[in-house]
Write a structure and sequence with these properties.
6 helices
Length: 173
């Protein structure tokens, strides 16, 4: 996610759903939940735009036929302040260069086409190139916006703990 792709993220997050409604990310979160929650859609969008404009690269986009169809939020654990302070998800180790995958969004019309799986693979590759020692994720036992446990396990992630209704998984690179 670079500044030149900002309009693609906006289009994906604000694209009307199959029934005409606005998808959840554009409706409020803008994938800022684990970074810095404001509770207001406009502030979250502005905060995400500021991250992108500053060159932070807060995630990756997936495309099909030239159109954005999916998003994964990935970065160094330290970039996710809410995660670092969470009693359930904060790190239990002092490992350096651990990256976290904290959120997925796939356009409803593209679900079932392997977009989320491709985003997991791309996030791991991106983290590896950025010098990550490991990648963590926090899938719910019932699949939701933080991914499917089986998708991570198929890629070699191992369970390192349980945090409420979520499992903490890690892939050492």
């Amino acid at each position: 996610m670079t500044p030149d792709r900002w309009s693609d993220l906006v289009e994906l997050f604000e694209r009307p759903g199959p029934r005409g409604g606005t998808p959840m990310p554009g409706a409020g979160c803008w994938c800022m939940w684990w970074r810095h929650r404001t509770g207001e859609a406009a502030k979250n969008k502005q905060a995400m735009q500021s991250l992108v404009a500053a060159g932070t690269e807060p995630g990756l986009l997936a495309y099909a036929d030239g159109h954005p169809v999916g998003w994964v939020s990935v970065g160094r654990r330290e970039q996710f302040g809410q995660l670092m302070r969470s009693p359930q998800y904060k790190p239990r180790d002092s490992d350096l260069n651990v990256f976290a995958i904290v959120c997925f969004y796939v356009d409803p019309r593209s679900k079932g086409a392997g977009v989320a799986s491709a985003l997991v693979d791309a996030a791991v590759d991106w983290a590896r190139r950025a010098g990550a020692s490991a990648v963590e994720a926090y899938p719910n036992l019932k699949p939701d916006f933080m991914g499917r446990l089986d998708a991570f396990e198929r890629r070699g992630f191992s369970q390192t703990g349980v945090a409420g209704k979520r499992v903490v998984v890690r892939l050492t690179l």
